[in-house]
Amino acid sequence: MTKKHLYSRRLFLRGAGVTMALPWLESMPVWGDTPGAAGSQAPVRLGVLFAGNGFHSKEWWAQGEGAAMKLGKVLTPLSDLRRKMLFVRGLYNEEALKGNIHSSQTGNLLSGAPLASGGEIRSGTSFDQLLAQRYGASTRVPSLVLGCEKSNPSVHKNYSMLYSSHISWSSPTTPTPLELYPALAFDRLFKDEASKADQSVLDAVLSDARDLRRDISTGDQRKLDEYLESVRDVEQRIANAGKRGQLQGWRPTLDKPNIPRPADGIPQDIAEHMRLMADIVVLGFQTDTTRIATLKLNNDHSSLRFPNLGVDYMIHHLLSHADTPDWLKVNQFFLEQLAYLARKLDSIREGDRTLLDNTMLLFCSSMLTGSHEARQLPVVVLGGGGGRIQGGRVLDYREKPDRQLCRLYLSLMDKMDVRLPRFGDAARPLDEV
After folding, report:
1. pLDDT in tens, 148-202
2. Minimal CA–CA distance to 269: which of 260, 277, 281?
């Protein structure tokens, strides 16, 4: 096999049972056959992060522009990212107002579709999965759909709580399966079969990496080393993630577990779990293994607890019903996860831009506050969408007509060259975006 064929379109390292895509390298035309050609431009990616139960009613706000933008206390973790942020206020999902409970406000968050109740499960294909269908053939993984809290299969006020547990839907009747295990999400990016194997991904491809290193520039050698180190770091953190003893989700009826905790499982340190999942999203985007990722940090009607924050006396859902200092602390924790992901993307160069500049990172919840306020929804967009989105702005639609949230989705899909005449309850995109 010729070197030209090896390096055309997508650059891989290969080993036994492992195929590792590599990031953009200036001396290799990873995304196109000719350096500098239109096809060599980095693709636009979409990341969606969701946090359930809304936010502090008095501290979710932004005013002004650019570096001078002022932020409410919930948003202070994003202070250094203001120039690359759109704060969008006043959009809503009309169908979500019908049930006025968590499930009915969450199951159609990314589709705007009517929800079935009374034992039936029907929503609509979410816009992230429409994009995954469009780009799935171009990448190894059509989309990553990750979660940090298990799905809830029960029923609440005639609506399935699967709606509260899933924001990504592959079809109107099929919520996209959530991957909760960082090890399996990692394997899906790199291993030919997504099952945990004994051999390290890096150990499997080191020989191929040494061969590649001889053929790339000094700057690319440095970038390759940094990338491989980041993969090793994620591998090691996954291996250690199940060793802590902090239970942060549902509480058992026993004071102590009566069986040993499995060595390989969902990390019990929720901060580590969330950051591992964010790191896996970064690796997926950085290597163009996927261009679509959805990360559900918790469920709506969530049962997570936060001993890492000193807030261990009440589950997330109950905390959301009062604007206490602890509720604000938990809000900021979720925004810190968004900031962590955005900063990592922004630290990776892709030619003249960063990976964040080539990404649209949507952060949302299905209610503005824990009192089920859904007449306006909390929305933040970070990133430049490949130069198609201007950050450092506040867009306020509260007093404007046609303020459907699905108009934003039409706008984001347009940035990825997917243009639909209609989506959900919207017939045109938001011109300002």
Report:
1. 998 877 776 777 878 888 999 999 999 999 999 998 889 898 888 655 455 688 8
2. 277
Contact of 23 with 221, CB cutoff 8 Å? no
In this structure, the number of other CB atoms found within 10 A of the CB of residue 138 comes to 14
- What distances in angstroms separate CA 72 from CA 57, 87, 320, 331, 393, one per listed residue? 10, 11, 17, 11, 15
| Amino acid (one-letter) located at 219 | G
Spatial distance between the Cα atoms of 64 and 80, rounded to a whole number of angstroms:
15
250/296: higher pLDDT: 296
Contacts 24+ apart (CB under 8 A), 234-237: 234/182, 234/186, 234/276, 234/279, 234/280, 234/283, 235/186, 235/200, 235/201, 235/202, 237/272, 237/276, 237/279
> Tokens at residue 268, please?
């019990």
Q: Dihedral of the CA atoms 283, 286, 291, 295 (nearest 10)?
A: 40
Tell me the percentage of the chain whose pLDDT exceeds 70: 87
CA distance 109 to 408: 12
Find the helix or strand (DSSP H, E) in which 418 lies: none
- In the chain, the amino acid numbered 19 is T
CA-atom Rg of the chain in angstroms: 21
Residue 419 sits at φ, ψ, to 5 deg, of -115, 120
Place of tokens 């196109």: 32
Strand pairing partners for 156? 159
Question: One-letter amino acid identity for 134?
Answer: R
- The whole-number average pLDDT for the span 101-125 is 86
DSSP H helices in 169-240: 182-190, 201-213, 218-240
- Segment holding 296, helix H or strand E: strand 292-296
The phi, psi pair for 246, rounded to 5°, reads: -80, 120
pLDDT score recorded for residue 198: 58
Residue 244: what pLDDT?
A: 53
* pLDDT at 3 (0 to 100): 40
Q: Phi and psi dihedrals of 329, rounded to 5?
A: -60, -40
Residue closest to 23 by CA, chosen among 285, 212, 287: 287
Residue 18: both structure tokens together: 């492992």
The most distant pair of C-alpha atoms in the chain lies apart, rounded to whole Å, by 64
Q: Rounded mean pLDDT of 57-63?
A: 96
For residue 278, the model assigns a pLDDT of: 96
Mean pLDDT of the chain: 86
Domains within the chain, CATH numbers bracketed:
46-196+270-415 (3.40.720)
Using the predicted structure, report yes or no on whether residue 9 has a pLDDT greater than 50: no
Q: How far is CA 143 from CA 48, 98, 281, 289, 387, in A?
A: 11, 30, 10, 9, 22
